[in-house]
């Protein structure tokens, strides 16, 4: 949803990190007028019922090999899987710890290199399991250092992840679904139908692939570098994470585990378009920070921009946010607000916004609209955005205006869309044009 819900792809940058890539070749492709988006005047279809992950998630056992992918299993699931494969029950917890460290702390992909395990046991692991990540199809690097990865997952589907380097930190925006059921009219991803939910392994895998590309795994014996290239993860890529709740939760448990990838819950932000019934669960079962794709101050406008509003309107959403269990001044909710010329950017909108959110510890990210081919909106003028920000700021809320990031590679907020549906012929043509 960042594609959608965030301003994260937008901060200032002072330098790109060192590249130690696995990727040898870059396929630079553009998106060029391949799609047409919904018109602001066209009727927005009513929401369909929330999807269930049972229907849409592929099984953990990989059909090609019959082996189970370890990536994305929680500790408990891994323990059970090891026992089922023949590990003695009383050793299982210790084995989980060892394997966990190799995979998530050291970034190992080969059981044969897990030297604190007996050779026979390594062979047993290789027979039953694999350590499998999404495959990088292409990586584009923006002039501002932002990187967009096109990743292929099981079934040949493709999703995108975006890395945004900043001074002293780096944010990885990950996807939770292929496509999206919601049809937010300002969002490029929303023009791509939902294909399926991502598995926990495919969500964690995006973090691991980016670490590979950035060369961020620790080197045995080398002094520990406390500066993290991926210091933050935002669930704001393709898809609505709260429509894939269980898989997102399990993936974040792996990402937060402090013997592995070890990102604290306060370094993870989940962005929702407003799936009200799942909001409290997010605090209780994941505990991460929350961002909301708000974007409008009346139901009439929000019904068009964020159609899920027809199911849970502004009032219902704000009620759920007021009760967000972790709500405090140190863990404010981020309201994302995309600035659309003449649609939601008036002084009256700004005043209404601060009235609506009164009492909620909040920060408002103002996101200049990032245009995409066929987009039915225009970005608000800078003076208008500034005037809007001033009103919000004077009311006591932080209201940063996000500098668009990665626009030249269509990696900015609201621009993500997997290449799957664009068709290989078109992509090849575009790649050839880019290379020429
Ligand atoms: S269409 Fe989907 S991906 Fe885009 S903003 Fe809406 S919920 Fe997020």
How is this structure best described in words?
The chain has 436 residues and is an alpha/beta fold. It has two domains: 2-45 and 133-435, TIM Barrel (Alpha-Beta Barrel), CATH 3.20.20.70; 68-130, DNA polymerase, domain 1, CATH 1.10.150. The protein has 13 helices and 13 strands. It has helices at 2-5, 53-56, 75-84, 89-105, 119-128, 200-214, 245-256, 279-286, 299-305, 314-322, 347-356, 382-394, 424-435; strands at 68-69, 129-130, 135-141, 147-152, 158-166, 169-173, 177-178, 196-197, 232-235, 268-272, 289-293, 333-339, 362-368. The strands form three sheets. It has a nine-stranded mixed beta sheet with strand order 3-4-5-6-9-10-11-12-13. Helix 11 (347-356) links the parallel strand 12 (333-339) and strand 13 (362-368). Helix 3 (75-84) packs across helix 4, helix 6 (200-214) packs across helix 7 and helix 11 (347-356) packs parallel to helix 12. It is elongated. Mean pLDDT is 81; it is low at 1-59 and 418-436. The structure holds iron/sulfur cluster (SF4). Iron/sulfur cluster is lined by residues 1, 3-5, 180, 182-184, 187, 189-190, 238-240, 273, 293.
